[in-house]
Amino acid sequence: MATAPLAETQPPQAGAACGRKVVDEVSGWLRVLDDGSVDRTWTGPPEALPLMQPVAPYAEPRDGHTLHDLPGEPNLRVYLPEVAGGEGVGRLPVIVHLHGGGFCVSHPSWLMYHHFYSRLACAVPAAVVSVELPLAPERRLPAHVDTGVAALRRLRTIALAEDGGALDDPAAKLLREAVDVSRVFLIGDSSGANLVHFVAARVGQDGPGSWAPLRVAGGIPIHPGFVRAARSRSELEVRSDSVFFTLDMLDKFNAMALPVGATKEHPFTCPMGPQAPPLDSVPLPPMLVAVGENDLVRDRNLEYCDALRAAGKDVEVLLSRGMSHAFYLNKFAVDMDPATGERAQELINAITSFVARN
After folding, report:
1. Catalytic residue at 223?
2. Which residue out of 65, 107, 144, 325 is catalytically annotated?
3. Which of 69, 163, 180, 295 is catalytic?
4. Catalytic residue among 106, 118, 130, 190, which?
5. Is 65 an annotated catalytic residue?
6. What average pLDDT does the segment 29-44 reach?
7. Is residue 240 part of a domain?
8. What is the CA angle 5-56-253, rounded to 5?
9. Going along 142-266, which residue ranges are E strands?
10. Is 239 helix (H, G, I), strand (E, B) or coil?
């Protein structure tokens, strides 16, 4: 059954748990109630709420792009730069975005994603297709991986004009006419960056013949939420400088999202750990891994990069000096703080260069 279009999603600020007992929670973000329901009313600092406001789609260009929602299985949000279909312009690469939120919260219509990915679409230029992912604990992993793979299958179907009635959707037609599905790049923030690894591996295991003409040409995990049994809890806590992202929050999200009974050594949160298949056996495209110098999980990110290199994988690393987890999604910091704005532009430049070379 198709879910509601992206634009109808409301920010997590209305509706509270009333008369029900909270049996589990992630401070500020969500509460699991004794009837099994989940309350995602934001109870953290109110200044964060503007970043969670949904942005409605628009067919008339704004800031060099248009924005379209494509309901279906799964729901997709499509950013198209104005160069799409322009005279003398070739087909655009596709950047498929897998949003973060600890597998448990957030939505691709939120301003925090919109401001970065609309800008990225114009800079590359590329069509950016953001995927609405399921949320844990209602749907645990591997549901998120399955949805990422389903989004690629839907993109392939649209490109081949095999999407049945959905082909009448103007967004599907625009997408089909604008893009080159032989150049698809997976990008993800935080837990979405974890998904980049597993969705790319799933496609690679199927072999190119199963996906042609679609080809995953590269992966861009940004600040992946990789964890494992910490060698030193203090080495992580020293960089826990954000009230929105702490080690305890990460542990809670993972406990709600991982398969029942799994520990943080599970491959979904530690693909370079002892429970994961050897990385040299995992088919992966070239990877650009973005790491924040002050990120809570910086060491795990760098460990992942080292493991990829040791396995003979093609991997580049961008280290954002002085930056913490998902800094580039904070529109207000990017706009008002020169250092944050500069690091965000460096990230966009690195992605642009990576896409051009692959």
Report:
1. no
2. 325
3. 295
4. 190
5. no
6. 94
7. yes
8. 65
9. 179-189, 216-222
10. coil
**Quick one: which H or E segment has residue 339?**
helix 338-357
158 near 176, Cβ under 8 Å? yes
The domain spanning residue 255 has which CATH number?
3.40.50.1820
Q: What is the pLDDT of residues 156-205, one digit of tens each?
A: 999 988 755 456 788 899 999 999 999 999 999 999 999 999 999 999 99
Among residues 84, 81, 57, 61, which one has the least CA distance to residue 69? 57
Q: Which two tokens stand for residue 267?
A: 């491959």
What is the C-alpha separation between 190 and 278, in angstroms, rounded? 22
Q: Based on the residue annotation, tell me whether 190 is a catalytic residue of this protein.
A: yes
The answer to whether 112 and 332 have CB atoms below 8 angstroms apart is: no
Phi-psi region of 61 (alpha: psi -120 to 50; beta: other; left: phi over 0): beta
Residue 6 lies in a domain: no
- How far is CA 356 from its chain centroid? 21
Residue-range definition of the domain harbouring residue 67: 54-357
Is residue 4 domain-resident? no
Over the stretch 52-103, which tens digit does the pLDDT of each residue have?
999 999 999 999 999 999 999 999 999 999 986 555 568 999 999 999 999 9
